[in-house]
Prior knowledge:
Layout: E1 4-7, H1 25-38, E2 43-46, H2 58-74, E3 77-80, E4 97-99, E5 105-109, E6 112-116, E7 141-146, H3 163-169, E8 173-177, E9 184-186, E10 190-193, E11 200-204, E12 213-217
Parallel strand pairs: 1-2, 2-3, 3-4, 6-7, 7-8, 8-10
Antiparallel strand pairs: 1-11, 5-6, 9-10, 11-12
Helix pairs in contact: 1-2
Manganese (II) ion (MN) is lined by residues 48-49, 83-85, 146, 158, 178.
GO molecular function, one term: hydrolase activity
Pfam family, one: Metallophos
Domain Calcineurin-like phosphoesterase: 3-182
Amino acid sequence: MDPILALADIHLGRKQSGDKKIGPGLAWALDALDQGAKAGARHLIMAGDIIDRKRFTEVTYDEVNQFFERGLSLFDTVLFTPGNHDTHHNLDLPTGVTVASPSPATYLMGSCAVHTAGVEVDKDPRELVGSFPLLIDGTVNLGILHTSLTGEHSNNPCLPCTREELLDYGCDAWLLGHVHQPVSVNESPFIGWIGMGRALIVRTAEPQAESKVTVEELTTVRWKHA
Ligand SMILES: [Mn+2]
């Protein structure tokens, strides 16, 4: 598989300091894209909450577009799975960005099959993992979900599911959005939240490895508050 860069929960519109809720901001996000491409990533996944629900101004929409335009210039494919904050906005994204449907579906990124569903409404109560599409044999299958899982790390329910449901579905890795801390809930296969101000790269693992893929943080781009 071609390496894939995964980001989540950037919450553009938030200030970088001096507010109760802060975020990494556009400059960080653009640098994360540049560094991810330099590290070999060929595809970009943004796993939800590109923009904040409450903290935004008119320029924030232009920042969202700048983020995706940079993504399109650096990567072969760009997939955006909307998060709960994104549902508060009517985003008009650049042509070329694939926006995940609210219904579970599979998107190809190079040879990799990415299974995901976008958040439909803030506090989306749907339990979707049981209706995800069949995995594709002979290739890497990745799952992307903007989820609170069973709620231990979030007080805002979103596409609830259990770790066991994700394991049973059987992806080579699950990259999650919604929780801002980089909490991992399973080591192999990797299941965990990407986290705010962090960047993960998914690559093919060594042939003898337990998993088909490795999921590693691009530590050089970690936001100082992450
Ligand atoms: Mn969220």
